[in-house]
Automatic annotation (TrEMBL):
Gene from which this protein is expressed: RIBC2
Region feature (Disordered): 69-99
Keyword Chaperone recorded: no
Keyword RNA-binding belongs to the record: no
Locations listed in the record: Cytoplasm, Cytoskeleton, Flagellum axoneme
Species the sequence originates in: Phasianus colchicus (Common pheasant)
Family: Belongs to the RIB43A family.
Lineage, opening ranks: Eukaryota, Metazoa, Chordata, Craniata, Vertebrata
Protein's recorded name: RIB43A domain with coiled-coils 2
Amino acid sequence: MRDRCPEVDKDALDAQVKDRKIQEAAEKARNEELANEMKRNDKMMCMLEERQKCNIRNTNKAVSDFQKNFQQPETRREFDLSDPQALKKDRPARLSDNDPRCTVSGLQKFMGEDLNYAQRTKFQKEQLREWSLQQQRDYKNALADKKYLDDLHDKNRIELDRKTMEQQRLEEETRRAVCAAIKDFNKSQAAELAERKRLDKRQKMKDDMDEISSQLQGDLLSENPDQAISSFGTHRVITDRWKGMNQDQLMAIRSFQQQQVLEKLRLKEEERQRDAEWDRQSMQAARAQLILERHQARQNRECRQALDSINAQLSQEQKSKNIYLKEEEYSNCPTSQYFAQFNTTSR
């Protein structure tokens, strides 16, 4: 499609900008009014919260004073369970292993908790000491055995290294002998190859001289036109022997090229006519699209004006409702006497 430059309705654009600015100003005023209302509500909530905290603090203080003056720990029925002097007042759990108070159901005596615990512990420590000494002796014997095995291993490794070095020396001598034999064989091969190359070079020079003589006396260099005629027909030639076309063949080719030029000019004229018709149709489609866009913009502007009118009406109703709530519904503010009637008892 060709490039086009549609016209711009400046008045419509200016009207859209003006409507947009009016809408933004109205929205900004509404947001500021809502922000101020939220600030007043937050301030009132902070005051009420501070008053509630003060009342709770006074109530907790009164409860604490009452418990301190009229609910002493010694007067409680369960004081014996948390008496700090209970251990000083109480007797030991048992006086001996045969204490009659140590019954089965009392759970005061278990295995290993007899009064001979100190002597039994001393005997167990002596037994552990003997066991530890025995383990140390076993450990020393194990270290000695390990040292003997390590020494034996080192001796075997040294002997193995000596045998390996001897084997490497024998392999080195064998390798030197093989290399000497290979060197002699390579020398003989090189001499034979040089002789063969010399004979091949002489034969190649003889063949080249025969080829040059054959070419000089052949049809290729003598430019014989009959040599290019193929055995498959007179209309076919042998490319490596063909020396060019004659005048009749050249005239036929030029005539055919002139026909091709005329045919190409005719095709270009048809393409130019098709492009002109396509441009005309494109301009018509662009003009119809511009008319449709202007109509759509006009409808959008009318819808936007109707929406602005509805929004203004809703804003006025919201303002009236806020004035009614402020002056009628929320006119009676609670006093401190109203909050003082709560939390007046300890329960």
